[in-house]
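Q: Joint fold for the lines below.
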Amino acid sequence: MLYAVVMSSALPPFPKPQEPLEPPRLLEVESAPDEPCLRADAARNRARLLEAAARLIAEHGVAGVTMEAVAAAAQVGKGTVFRRFGDRNGLLTALLDHSARQLQADFLGGPPPLGPGAPPLERLRAFGVAVLYRSAEQLDLQLAAQPEPARRFSHPSVQALRTHVAMLLRQIVPTADCELLSQTLMASLDPALIHHLTRQCGMPMHRLESGWHDLVARLTGTEWSG
Amino acid sequence: MLYAVVMSSALPPFPKPQEPLEPPRLLEVESAPDEPCLRADAARNRARLLEAAARLIAEHGVAGVTMEAVAAAAQVGKGTVFRRFGDRNGLLTALLDHSARQLQADFLGGPPPLGPGAPPLERLRAFGVAVLYRSAEQLDLQLAAQPEPARRFSHPSVQALRTHVAMLLRQIVPTADCELLSQTLMASLDPALIHHLTRQCGMPMHRLESGWHDLVARLTGTEWSG
DNA sequence: AGGCTAAGCGGACCGTGGTCCAGTTTCATT
DNA sequence: AATGAAACTGGACCACGGTCCGCTTAGCCT
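A: Joint structure:
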């Protein structure tokens, strides 16, 4: 299996490393047919790079994903990798993009309790569990893809999740500072934290799950006995 | 002003980069007279390095703190910097060490409401505010000193803070999973998050402060009107 | 004082992320 | 089909973090 040829951000020319990267664009999740306008050769190379990266991960773990190694494995110049993905983080993120889109689609338009239709509290609870397990599955990659501190929270995909949480929160506790509260909730689902708790502190996943339910209950002032 | 000549971890020989770094040692905060046994020349160089690093920060910002630059500025070999501080992170952390110890001393043995004497809830509230403002003061350095994701939570100084929070929580909500809850609370004080909220989202500090009080109130099931 | 040894030193060396730009390819236009 | 410009390519190049190892030196022991 190889990672789909989709990505969340098209990189402008090159000269300038462009900061804003692109707005969240919550609404067109499953629509965009890959990179809209990408020259044929560019698209081909992109696919080869992603495939090569995936192969390298499978063989040598995330640490084996060196920009040079990927370029070599895809029989492409190093510059091309950087042009396409911006930096190492961009490449790793692209690898995660498929599942990120999946998750987004699930809670935006999927079946309840994750998707619309269930009461907000239910959705919020389900959301945390979903994120928790998704992260747990791809921990290494998630960890390695973590950008430098300053950008951790501004990444579009992270923003999208947080915005969704804020939206749910507003329906549950309209009087609270939901922006802030949503940040806290998201912070408690940080892959690095999950890694620490499960791998370094030895907590089982079900404890994190209970923790999430408890946390949500406390923050929203609802009841929960677990 | 230059950063005091203290540091939280003595580095073993060199050959092995030693993982465990050192236990939290919560109790001897103000006691240790700097590095206990350090050869005269080593101690001198250490001081010169810290001073040089501080100077570089003042002049060129954190980004200017290159290991080579520091070595050169201190008129010392590059290898010496690494031997003394392990890596760039260690150096940056050493720069922060003074204020970290200060904070620790304050909540372990200082006057209420931070120190013992005040009711736990009071202390917890004060604790968050203290951490908040301390981080805000040294944001750049705190950000730059943030280690790779996997170690973020295992750093002794972070552990110490979290343990303290857990202790307070146990007194306030004995039936809760205080370990987990304390992680959440600490996560909401993450320097990277503070940076994001204040510098990128433009939130004023007082809003974060209110947010903390509100968060504590909700988590502990106590009242608060702000 | 002299000598012994572990601790400390320093700078050459390496790998990796990231940049640059001259040359090449694609493709819309005619 | 020819053409021109925008987009893409590739590999030489750079800076920085980090390692290694032969040499020096502090500080103890006699």
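Q: Anything notable?
A: Confidence is low (pLDDT under 50) at residues 1-34 of chain A. Residues 13-14, 39, 41-42, 45, 71, 76-80, 83-84 of chain A lie near DNA strand D (CB under 10 Å from a C1').
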